[in-house]
Amino acid sequence: MEVSTVCVRTFSAVAVLSAAAAAFVGVRRDRAVRARLVREAASSRLMAGCAHRDTEALRVQLAAFRRRLELEVAGRQVVAEADRVLDEALAVQIRQIDPEGGSR
Question: 72-77: long-range contacts (C-beta < 8 A, 24 or more apart)?
Fold first, then answer.
């Protein structure tokens, strides 16, 4: 009977130790998964912040580009209008010149 009791106790001890080891591994995996989720959440928040910052910087640069473009277009319109006025003035002067050397 004594050998049987020792075997039962040994198997019981092995079963308890196996259950404890399995629980330890389970807890450790759970902690690792939770830590990974926390890191991923922090990374996601960081990336969202970077995306917001970059979008805002791009918006500011685009607004500045639009202002420069509007100034350039306005400047070209002024030059085109001045060119038109000068062409009209020159056309009037050419019409007033007498082809025989004098003014009309």
Answer: none
Instruction: Give the angle subtended at the CA of 21 by the CAs of 30 and 28, to the nearest 5°.
Output: 20
Per residue, what are the HEC states of 64-82?
HHHHHHHHHHHHHHHHHHH
Integer Cα distance of 22 and 15 in angstroms: 10
Question: Given CA atoms 90, 95, 101, 104 in this order, what sign does their dihedral have?
Answer: negative
Is a pLDDT exceeding 80 seen at residue 104?
Answer: no
Instruction: Report pLDDT digits (tens) over 17-52.
Output: 999 999 999 999 999 999 999 999 999 999 999 999
How many secondary structure helices (H) and strands (E) does the chain include? 1, 0
Beta bridge partners of 97: 103
Report whether 93 contacts 87 (CB < 8 A).
Answer: no
